[in-house]
Structures are given as C-alpha cells and as structure tokens.
C-alpha cells in the first residue's frame, strides 16, 4: 500500500514539474516540439507506413505462417522462437524501430507465439534500419558514409548476440516439449498458408482497410512519443538535470579513457537517439573511433523515446516490458564492443581514415547512388505522403463511425 502511494506521489510530482518547465521555457519547448514533428512527418511516418500495412496483410493472408514453417529449423535451434520470428526479425531490420515490437505483438495476438517466446523475440527484433544508420547518422551527422559500415556491423552483430543470449530466458517457466525435428517442407508450408487465409475470412477490402487503420493509429502514437521526448530532452537540459547526470558520468568515462565532453551527448542519446548521435558527432575532443563507439551504444540502447513506443505497443498484450529493457542494455554494450574491436581490422584497414570529416561521402551513399536517392526522396515527399495517409485515415474513420452509429 505504501509503495503504491509513493508511486502516485512521484508520478504526480514528475508531471507537475514537467508542466512548470513547459511554462518556464515556452520557446525552447515549441522549438523541440517542431523538431520532433518534422522528424516524424518527414521521415518516420512515410518510411514505416508501407512496412506496417504490408506486414498486416502478409499476416492476414497467411504468408507469415508460410515463412514460419520454412524458417522453423533455423529460428528454433538458434533463438528458441518459432519460424515466424524470422519474419519479424527481417522486417524489424528493414524498417527500423519499433516495427519488431509491432509485429511481435501482432503475432502474439494471433496466438503464433507463447508469452515467453514473444518476450524473447521482441528483445532482438527492434533495431535501427540501414537507411537511418547510413543516411541520417553516417552521412547526415558525421559526413562519412564509410562509418556506416562499422556502425551497421556493430549494430546487427550486437542484435544477433542479444538473440543468442535471450534464448536462455524463461527456460524454467517454459514447458519442455519433445518436438520432432522437421525439415523445411513446401507442402506443409503451403498447407499452413491456405489454412491461415481460410481462418481469417475477412474480404480483401476489409483486410486492407483494417491494415491501414491499425498502421496509422500506431504511427500516430509513435509521433506523439517522438514529440514528447524531444521536448522532455530539451527541458532536462535547460533545468540542469542533464548536466547533473553528465557530471556523474564523467567519472565512468574517465575510467574508460574517454573524453568527458562525451557525457552530455551520451545522456541526451539515452533519451533520444537522433539528438544524441548528432551531439556525439560534434565533440571535437574525441577521436573518430571514440565517437563511433558511443554512437553504437546510443543506437543499440534505442533511447527512452523508442522504448516508450515499444512499451505502449506491448501494453496491448501480456508481453512483459522488463526483458526488452534489459536486452537493450546488453545490446548497447555488445554494439560498443563490436565497434571497438572492428575498428582497426575493418575501418582503418579498408577505408581511408585520412578523409576529413566534411569530405564528400563515397560508396553506397554517394550522390547518385540508389540509397542516396531513396533517402532524399523520403525527405522531400515525406510530408505529402503523411498528409495523404492521414486524410485517408480520417475518411475511413468517419465511414466506420457512421456505420456503427
């Protein structure tokens, strides 16, 4: 009873202090809010919407079940999750956070995952997509596309390591099943696909409408969290809390032989990855390798902003958030470790480290490459796509409200 009352007081005080901070720093709050809104409607919404809609339809038509049967012999021994986890893992890497959580929650609602399996799966299917690592971070912040290879390798190797580690989670609670090992069978996979489609007897139009409604509803929630944490991060800096945390972190950075100037970017990155990565790239006292290690940790930890998005999605199911949070800490340390050990054998050996930080990037993201064109297209057309999609959402919502009234 006492703990419950204490929690109530702490939550009430936190929200009250946040309200006072908003009143005290109105211009800074508005600027941070606009920054978060721009990031959401220019990049996040248009890049995630197609993945969310297609994922919903693939689940409804049974394609995910088909893929799951084929990937069962791979995913079960490695990560102790069903084959459908392979689809969530691939889509999570392709589309970025929080797609992995969205798909895991959906598969749990469909009954294709047990609670323990879902908690294992969600811990390693949420990661940054290559477009963000190469485009926004490597080119946008560090002006060096070559750095993207190290960040991507460290990020995805760390993700894989987390998956292997989390396979041991929940073994005591999980019932031991003596399942026969089966080889991938196209006949069984097609049978599962057909059975899933028959069980979901929604017409194509209804299925598409539900996919659009569900996807946009999730993206609206994501946008709210991005704006909220963008403002929160700014307020924490202005009221001095970021500075206090940074002072405590300086002792740890000194022990690790890292510049203490990385403390504030690191704390900012703990709350919001984009701002933290940008601030890390601007620390002149740190070497390029030290910046890469800190950025790798920030990208892997995902920031409280992304974690809040995941928590909101998981709250719609019985999936516990705690294993996901612990996995993010492990992912952060794994990614930082891989970035450090891969720096000399890969970056310094195969890439030109003498290139100045403001040089024109080369390789996969040079001007004219397909990834550069794709990133530029998303930034330029993102707001238009967002407005059109929201208009469609409003029309569908109004139509459904009329039907139910």
From TrEMBL:
**Where are the membrane-spanning stretches?**
48-71, 121-142, 148-170, 292-313, 325-343, 374-398
Q: Is Transmembrane helix one of the keywords UniProt gives this record?
A: yes
Q: Does the keyword Protease apply?
A: no
Q: Which Pfam families match?
A: Gate (PF07670)
The residues covered by the Nucleoside transporter/FeoB GTPase Gate domain are: 44-132, 219-315
Q: Which InterPro entries match?
A: Gate_dom, Spore_IM_YlbJ
Keywords assigned = Membrane, Transmembrane, Transmembrane helix
Please indicate which superkingdom the organism of origin belongs to.
Bacteria
Q: What is this protein called?
A: Sporulation integral membrane protein YlbJ
- Species whose genome carries this gene: Cytobacillus praedii
- Name of the encoding gene: ylbJ
């Amino acid at each position: 009873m006492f703990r419950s009352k204490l929690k109530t007081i702490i939550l009430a005080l936190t929200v009250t202090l946040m309200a006072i901070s908003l009143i005290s720093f109105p211009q800074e709050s508005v600027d941070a809010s606009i920054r978060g809104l721009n990031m959401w409607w220019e990049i996040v919404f248009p890049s995630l919407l197609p993945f969310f809609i297609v994922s919903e339809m693939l689940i409804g038509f049974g394609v995910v079940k088909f893929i799951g049967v084929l990937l069962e012999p791979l995913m079960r021994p490695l990560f102790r999750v069903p084959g459908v986890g392979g689809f969530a893992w691939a889509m999570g890497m392709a589309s970025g956070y929080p797609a992995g959580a969205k798909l895991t929650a959906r598969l749990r609602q469909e009954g294709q995952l047990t609670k323990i399996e879902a908690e294992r799966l969600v811990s390693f299917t949420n990661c940054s997509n290559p477009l963000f690592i190469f485009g926004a971070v490597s080119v946008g912040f560090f002006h060096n596309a070559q750095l993207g290879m190290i960040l991507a390798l460290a990020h995805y190797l760390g993700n894989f390591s987390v998956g292997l580690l989390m396979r041991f989670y929940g073994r005591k609670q999980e019932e031991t099943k003596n399942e026969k090992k089966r080889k991938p069978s196209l006949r069984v996979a097609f049978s599962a696909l057909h059975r899933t489609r028959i069980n979901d007897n929604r017409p194509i139009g209804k299925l598409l409408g539900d996919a659009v409604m569900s996807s946009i509803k999730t993206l609206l929630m994501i946008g709210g969290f991005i704006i909220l944490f963008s403002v929160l991060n700014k307020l924490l800096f202005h009221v001095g809390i970021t500075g206090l945390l940074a002072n405590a972190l300086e002792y740890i950075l000194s022990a690790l032989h890292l510049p203490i100037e990385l403390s504030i970017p690191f704390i900012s990155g703990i709350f919001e990855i984009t701002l933290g990565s940008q601030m890390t790239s601007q620390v002149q006292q740190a070497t390029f390798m030290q910046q890469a290690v800190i950025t790798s940790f920030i990208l892997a930890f995902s920031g409280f902003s992304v974690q809040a998005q995941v928590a909101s999605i998981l709250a719609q199911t019985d999936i516990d958030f705690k294993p996901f949070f612990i996995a993010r800490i492990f992912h952060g340390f794994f990614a930082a470790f891989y970035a450090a050990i891969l720096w000399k054998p890969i970056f310094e050996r195969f890439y030109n480290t003498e290139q100045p930080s403001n040089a024109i990037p080369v390789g996969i993201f040079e001007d004219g490459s397909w990834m550069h064109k794709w990133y530029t297209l998303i930034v330029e057309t993102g707001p238009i796509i967002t407005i059109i999609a929201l208009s469609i959402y409003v029309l569908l919502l109004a139509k459904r409200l009329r039907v139910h009234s």
